[in-house]
C-alpha cells in the first residue's frame, strides 16, 4: 500500500508510515506540540500537486451528485447535551457525501490507510476510529464564489482536512481553539466570535492545495469564510472518533446531506 500512497503523498517529507524512525519521531513530536499549543496541525504539501489536482477535478466532475445546502445551521448541530447557538447567517455550499465519492478516488485510499489513522491517534494522544457514518465519514466540501460554511462544532471528534484546491480568495478556515465550554455558557462570546471582535482569539488558516491538517473540530468552533473568485475551494473532511461505530446525528445528516441515513 505504501507505494500507492507514495504516488499520492510526500512520504519523504512526512513519513507517516514510519513514525518510529528518526524522522518520523521528529514529525510526530512537532505535530503533537502544534496540536497541544494551537489545537491544529498542518502538513503543507502533504499531497503531491498532481494528486491534489486529481482529487479536485474528480470531485468537481461529480459535483452533481452532491448536496446543495442553502440555509442556517445550529452551532452545536443539536448534540444530545442540549447546547444551542445561532449565528443568524444564511449560507450556501455543496457537499459530496462519503458514499457518493467515486470508488477509485484517492480519498478512499487515504482514509483506509492505517498509518494516517495511527498518526491522528498519536497526535491527539487517544485511540481513534474511523467514523461509521455512510454520508459523513468523509465529506468533500465544494465552495464556489459566495459559498461558505458557518460557525459550528463538528459531531465527529477529530478531523483530517485534505485541501485539494484553493480558491482565488477567501475560503479561509477560522477556529476558536477549544472554545466549546466557554461558547456553550456565553451567548455573548458566541456573538463576539461571529462578529469578528478582535478581543477574542480566532486563528486563521488559509486554504492551500495539498495541505493535510488535523484538528479537534468538536471542541474548537470553526468556519470557512466566503469564497471569492472563479476558482472553487475543494476540501475533503475525513473524520475520526475516540469510540468505534460513531455516526452523525439525524439533524446533521439531514441538514448537510438531506437524508435520514
Ligand atoms: O472545509 C473545511 O476546511 C472544513 C469543513 C468543516 O468544517 C466541516 O465539514 O465540518
Ligand atoms: Fe467542521
* Beta-strand residue percentage: 15-25%
Overall, the morphology is globular
- Low-confidence stretches are none
Tell me the CATH architecture: Sandwich
Query: Which structural class best describes the helix and strand composition?
Result: alpha+beta
Q: Total number of β-strand segments?
A: 14
Give helix and strand order, one letter per element, not per position.
HHEHEEHHEEEEEEHHEEEEEH
Radius of gyration, in Å, reads 17 Å
Count of structural domains: 1
Which ligands occur here? 2-oxoglutaric acid, fe (ii) ion
Taking the sheet with the most strands, its summary is:
8 strands, antiparallel
**How many angstroms does the end-to-end distance come to?**
31 Å
User: Averaged pLDDT, please?
Assistant: 95
CATH topology: Jelly Rolls
Number of helices: 8
Instruction: Report the helical percentage.
Output: 25-40%
Q: For the record, what is the CATH homologous superfamily label?
A: q2cbj1_9rhob like domain
User: Would you state the CATH class?
Assistant: Mainly Beta
Amino acid at each position: 500500500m505504501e507505494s500507492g500512497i507514495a504516488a499520492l503523498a510526500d512520504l519523504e517529507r512526512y513519513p507517516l508510515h514510519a513514525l518510529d524512525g528518526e524522522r518520523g519521531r521528529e514529525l510526530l513530536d512537532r505535530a503533537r506540540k502544534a496540536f497541544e499549543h494551537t489545537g491544529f496541525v498542518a502538513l503543507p504539501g502533504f499531497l503531491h500537486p498532481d494528486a491534489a489536482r486529481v482529487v479536485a477535478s474528480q470531485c468537481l466532475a461529480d459535483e452533481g451528485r452532491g448536496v446543495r445546502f442553502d440555509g442556517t445551521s445550529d452551532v452545536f448541530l443539536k448534540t444530545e447535551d442540549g447546547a444551542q447557538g445561532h449565528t443568524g447567517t444564511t449560507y450556501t455550499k455543496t457537499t459530496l457525501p462519503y458514499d457518493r465519492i467515486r470508488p477509485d478516488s484517492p480519498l478512499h485510499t487515504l482514509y483506509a490507510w492505517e498509518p494516517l489513522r495511527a498518526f491522528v491517534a498519536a497526535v491527539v494522544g487517544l485511540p481513534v476510529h474511523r467514523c461509521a457514518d455512510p454520508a459523513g465519514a468523509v465529506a468533500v466540501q465544494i465552495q464556489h464564489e459566495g459559498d461558505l460554511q458557518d460557525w459550528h462544532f463538528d459531531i465527529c471528534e477529530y478531523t483530517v482536512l485534505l485541501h485539494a484546491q484553493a480558491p482565488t480568495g477567501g475560503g479561509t478556515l477560522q477556529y476558536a481553539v477549544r472554545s466549546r465550554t466557554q461558547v456553550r455558557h456565553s451567548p455573548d462570546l458566541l456573538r463576539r466570535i461571529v462578529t469578528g471582535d478582535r478581543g477574542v482569539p480566532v486563528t486563521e488558516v488559509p486554504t492551500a492545495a495539498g495541505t493535510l491538517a488535523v484538528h479537534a473540530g468538536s471542541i474548537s468552533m470553526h468556519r470557512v469564510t466566503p469564497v471569492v473568485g472563479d476558482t472553487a475551494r475543494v476540501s475533503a473532511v475525513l473524520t475520526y472518533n475516540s469510540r468505534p461505530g460513531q455516526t452523525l446525528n439525524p439533524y446533521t445528516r439531514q441538514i448537510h446531506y438531506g437524508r435520514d441515513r
